[in-house]
Amino acid sequence: MEENIDIVFIVIVYKDLLLGGLGGLVVYLYDYSKATRSNEEFVFRFSSLLINVVLGMFVSYGVGTALVAGTPYRDIILMASGFSAYNVLALTESRFAEYIFKKFTGDSVKDKQGK
């Protein structure tokens, strides 16, 4: 019975990673098509595409662990998180740093900058 639970967990994780990677792929192709339509210079690089896919997978896995498996629209949320991986990471970076600073000092970063 426990083997079935492990298999289901592995399938859910792979699905989350696949959806996030798909979101990362789509955002790269979207940026490429947007640049070509506006006659901007955009060089298609496989390494950049791979980085987008990996970041999308990373963010979607993090979001997927916060969502219950039966959540409505879970797949769309995971694809959207992969699509907006750079924005999610930037927000997490800024909020996490402020959270840690506040935990250790009791003050916020904005309070320290204002003094």
Notes on the protein architecture:
With 115 residues, the chain is an all-alpha fold. It has one domain. The chain is built from five helices and no strands. Helix 1 crosses helix 3. The chain is flat and about 50 Å long. The relative contact order is 0.14. The mean pLDDT is 85.
Uncertain stretches: none
β-strand amount:
under 5%
What count of helical segments does DSSP give?
5
State the helical fraction: over 70%
Q: How many structural domains in the coordinates?
A: 1
Instruction: Give the overall form.
Output: flat
Number-wise, the strands total 0
Main beta sheet? none
Mean pLDDT: 85
Summing up helix and strand content along with how strands pair, one would put the structural category as mainly alpha
C-alpha termini separation: 60 Å
Helix/strand order, N-terminal first: HHHHH
Radius of gyration (Å): 18 Å
